[in-house]
Amino acid sequence: RRADPKIIRGAFDDARVALVLVLEQLRGDVLNFESANGDLIPALDFYAQKVGARYEVTRQTASIARMAAPLPFTKTVAMGATGGTGDARSDVVAVVGYLAGRHALRAPELPR
């Protein structure tokens, strides 16, 4: 189910959030990323490659109007899957785990 953006903003009202990951439909064979923040796209594609995820190379930056924005003015990436009847949840978990590790290592490509 989709969460109400107002509730999400309220839950994080006092927190400092640098990056939002939006998990979309994960039924499909190929993982894909969508972001209005073009600087994040190469890193996410690289992370997917590093963990061996089945993913589609991101070829363009999404428009801000097209992106879900539960926390306005915060870098946001939507992760979803397309094609076939597969299940991309394990690929998403692997990419998010790699991202969390890079964040813990204070990787320069991730917002702080």
Topology:
Layout: H1 5-11, E1 19-23, E2 30-35, H2 41-51, E3 75-82, H3 89-104
Parallel strand pairs: 1-3
Antiparallel strand pairs: 2-3
Helix pairs in contact: 2-3
Keywords:
three-stranded mixed sheet, single chain, 17% strand, 3 helices, globular, alpha+beta, 112 residues
Could you explain the architecture of this structure?
It is a single chain. This protein is α+β, with helices and mostly antiparallel strands and 112 residues long. It has helices spanning 5-11, 41-51, 89-104, and strands at 19-23, 30-35, 75-82. A 3-stranded mixed beta sheet has the order 1-3-2, with helices on one face. α2 (41-51) crosses α3 (89-104). The termini are far apart. The mean pLDDT is 90.
Oligomer: single chain
What Rg do the Cα atoms give? 14 Å
Structural class label: alpha+beta
Q: Report the average pLDDT across residues.
A: 90
Number of strands: 3
Give the SSE order as H and E letters.
Answer: HEEHEH
Characterize the main sheet.
Answer: 3 strands, mixed
Gross morphology is globular
Order of strands across the main sheet: 1-3-2
Structure summary:
The chain has 112 residues and is α+β, with helices and mostly antiparallel strands. The protein is built from three helices and three strands.
